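A student in our group prepared the protein record below, which I am reviewing. This is what I was given:
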Amino acid sequence: MADVISVSGYEDGSDVLGFFARVSVDPSVFSEEAIIKTAYWFTDHYYLFIARNASTNMIEVEFRLKEGDESGNLKVACGEFHNSLLE
């Protein structure tokens, strides 16, 4: 089972695959196209997994590091992701 911390649309934790961070995006505020295009910009440095949460209808974008084990980098990436959505 994963250890998870949730704060206002942001979660982070670890599981058997390592550290992760997840942001939830409201598709009524940002289009699915904008979310996917923004996620693409981050694929150089992170593995990204995108899914819709059936209970909340939010789109969740999960970040995992390609290299290293600095979980703090994931939190920064999530903040940059939210800022990039505005572009």
